[in-house]
Predict the 3D structure of the following.
Amino acid sequence: MAPRTKTQQPPAPHAADSHDLIRVHGARENNLKDVSIELPKRRLTVFTGVSGSGKSSLVFATIAAESQRLINETYPAFVQGFMPTQARPDVDVLDGLTTAIIVDQQRMGSDPRSTVGTATDANAMLRILFSRLGTPHIGPPGAFAFNVPSVTASGAITVERGNKTAVKATFSRTGGMCPRCEGRGSVSDIDLTQLYDDSKSIAEGAFTIPGWKSDSWWTVRIYADSGFLDPNKPIAKFTKKEMQDFLYREPTKVKVEGSTLTFEGLIPKIQKSFLSKDRESMQPHIREFVDRAVTFATCPECEGTRLTEGARSSKINKISIADACAMEIRDLAEWVRGLDEPSVAPLLEALQQTLDSFVEIGLGYLALDRPSGTLSGGEAQRVKMIRHLGSSLTDVTYVFDEPTIGLHPHDIRRMNDLLLRLRDKGNTVLVVEHKPEAIAIADHVVDLGPGAGTAGGTVCFEGTLEGLRASDTVTGRHLDDRAVLKDEVRKSTGALEIRGATSHNLRDVDVDIPLGVLTVITGVAGSGKSSLVHGSIPAGENVISVDQSPIKGSRRSNPATYTGLLEPIRKAFAKANGVKPALFSANSEGACPTCNGAGVIFTDLGMMASVSSPCEDCEGKRFQASVLDYHLGGRDISEVLAMPVAEAEKFFGSGEAAIPAAHKILDRLVDVGLGYLSLGQPLTTLSGGERQRLKLATHMADKGGVRQVLVLDEPTTGLHLADVEQLLGLLDRLVDSGKSVIVIEHHQAVMAHADWIIDLGPGAGHDGGKIVFEGTPADLVADRSTLTGEHLAEYVGE
């Protein structure tokens, strides 16, 4: 055998090692202006820039979207038919892409049967565990699932196989769903006393529902003249059949004064007309009515566990699956670690790894039965990270959308460590972020801008953090901004009393939240902030919660329709041109007949992406050509809807197009930092932070006085450093106008600007739930007795 020889010359670089960049050329998605950029692979790149500058358009709508589209194309056509379809982004060249895993901050859906356990497969593993080891044995895994109802069927079916016929007579399946609440854990009820006064007849005005006038055909008149009820008899004296028709009758056509109308029972009618609408978009008096009329209570049969008695009776070491799901995940992880059963060893190992990942990522305080719709955007994003933490995959592109949302400064360090760990395994990590603490760990920084909307969409800077700090970009100039403690704080005008609060992890908390001032509720993630504010404020208080949840509506809904801005604009157009206001609605008479006012034509191509192309008749303007001949101030209605808010505010503020009612609404939209949004932008394209600020703009007009309390849940979400100062000014104006403002927030600038701080902790879950500090920001900094105090003192430089 010949001896092995070694060459002295280093080998030439392998061609496969040269692909170390993601190249983007000519990206034009949304507001991007022919962006070309090269991003290093296996590094952590942070994208910064003001809200609306094009960060998400570049990272999510271009790079990540194309990666996912290409991966989907590798599946068979049959499989592609079941997958979400995506069109190719508007970009000339995308080269060097790797598999993209998107971890965004979209809420995890508000389906009442979706929980932390179902969203992460932990429940599925627990169900198998209990079906194997639980005593008494009650059935397969489905017997422990609150999404599976028990089914029993009897009869006969005929199955033909060749010349033979088989007859099967019975079928049964044991499910774990509680039949009373159908797996929801709570039962809702409509309080009939809030709908009508049963001592009166319909003719005497028995209905107490807002907006139900005696001469309205579709409300009071249809009940009075339907023929099913006696309108002159007090409701309390209705027969059983009359009451059934009155409350529950299926939709039925009836004649009222020669017109055919649809009669429907009162309860389904109320559910459709009030309860199906977005609560935050309701007028204040309607919202108050809904809050009074609908009651929610824990299901008396399953006691909120969602499970049948059989599922709750099967136990392992005296613990039922309901007990296991109600435990804090860190406690459940210890319980699973104590199980020693070789027959299910692989299952225990997988379950243990999933539960440990929860603890590692800082979510050990959650329980598996926590409804996923109640998680904050930051918690939802971290839950989605669970399945990637222990993954053996490398050379993957992880895409994060503001991973520090909902995190206390103390927790941001832990998140930074996780992002660096993902990078160090050989992955490319792309992060859209505003917090300086998260930008600080970047290997590469890309700053987009210089402005928002049409004023953005270009790359202003790319390089290192130090280079960004020295650059003259908006982000570079504001990177070291620090809010200062106020010299004087406002005095409260009263107090919102909370006594004996025990919601979730709160430990019999008594606290007075001052009114007439800016109060900030803070504490580490999971310390009990939301439980205190959203779950413990007494009913009947004039409290309006402004959060980031999706706004109900179609892709036709936009800021102009949501805020009521379109109404005065349509009337002004109609008056100036002597025509009907309905002509200036793309959902009514003025709509282009070809696209029905959508502006685009959708072509369904089955398994491939649906193609949307601008309507050829209206050229995407959504209106009939004849409508566009009418002008106001030299603009037609389509040009007005294409305007950014800031431009529209000037346009409707003075001159021929001055409309005071429209100008007031636009003024408020500019105040909340949405000047870059176009009036006709679909609401489905807004981020969580933008949705929250849009809701806030609608509530700024409420005349609630000092007893009106606005609760804002992390209003700095999605806000650039330069916009935080504007937000602080807005909060001040809200308080000075007579409102009380409570902010759940982690941003130190908002804490420093507060009049009063309530700090919860000291830890998360059962380590939290207590008030650890109440007082002014200056006292908190001087005290330094809590984690928040230490970080705030460090922030203000004391």
In short: The chain is about 30% helix and 20% strand. The first strand starts at residue 21 and ends at 27. Residues 55-72 form the longest helix (18 residues).
